[in-house]
Amino acid sequence: MVRVDFNVPLDEMGEVADDTRIRATLPTIDYLCGDGAKVILISHLGRPKNFDERFRLDPVARALSRLLNRPVRKVDRTVTDEVIKAVNELKAGDVLMLENVRFNPGEKENDPEFARALASLADVYVNDAFGAAHRAHASTAGVAKYLPAVAGLLLEREVSSLSRLLGNPEHPFLAILGGNKVSDKIGVIERFLDIVDALLTGGGMCFTFLKAKGFNIGDSICQEDGLDHCRRMLDKAEKNGTPFYLPTDVVVADAFAEDANHKVVSANRILNGWMGLDIGPETVEIYRDVVKRARTIFWNGPMGVFEMEPFSQGTRAIAEAIASSGAMTIVGGGDSDAALKKYGFEDRISFVSTGGGASLKLLEGSPLPGLEALLDK
Ligand code: ADP
Ligand code: MG
Ion ligand 2 — residues with CB under 5 Å? Predict the structure, then answer.
């Protein structure tokens, strides 16, 4: 039984729009099938509360079948008699995909009964779902209590690549953080302030920091309940002597829209009625210079609303600088990865993690339940 993270985006037709996460598990699946295992795949897709037609895994099974170039049988349930029958019919090297595991409420509750029922289908549990390893769910953690549980090749590669940042990174070590929510990043910022040589910030989250410094941020996105944390982080950076870069200029718009009026202003001159949606050109120059000198770079979170053309320059420029740096580069986060792909820099990054949330949790030093369950053995 292999837990994979096939939580992939679907297009308007309901087909897989980006198969990166599926491709990333092919080494594990190939390895197991090649050794004559009967492979049962489990994954979630989206955030359904219970059964939801839109989140069935059929399109995912079709995409996997194309990539493996052989049939992948898909069943419409996870632990019923129909599934047991399908498992019993498996031959060496066959692949069977169960239905979206989150259709069963026992999944997110980490219900021991559900975990036991899943476990009863197989002899060995392999966790290859790094993107879900920070969740203590039945199929990511619970099931490991009832079966010999080991890491898959992707999970192993993710953990070893990310752990290199915490072990003995080449200096200067630079962290670049952006994206929209400051709350997701507080833990990792705190940890990074002890290990990096400089921190660059952008995206929506930097406005809570700008406000914490006393700047007027107009209508920019701000997380009021994060202000204290931000002040503490700025203090810590100062105490540690770690340069903590905030944008000096920003692209502001009068609406959150592609066709909004927009202009570049100094970061301390954002007026009410305007919101910051990208870092400005002066900031890009400053950041580029820091990136150029780094030997190790971790990047999570776009520098602006790169999905809208007028606010994409900062993200594009920083992505290009990272790709051209010659440093060891590690990128985590679905949107950051999407930006790399959009601008064609993906192949020039040392390692792109398939887990945004999970990579931040690992780097901040929080235990990952999906991993802990394996280490117990
Ligand atoms: P990742 O998926 O790489 O971890 P996040 O999910 O944290 O990144 O953040 C990505 C989102 O942040 C993008 O959808 C982007 O539009 C948004 N974003 C970036 N800058 C801003 C900003 N200034 N204001 C609002 N949203 C922003
Ligand atoms: Mg995201």
Answer: 334-335
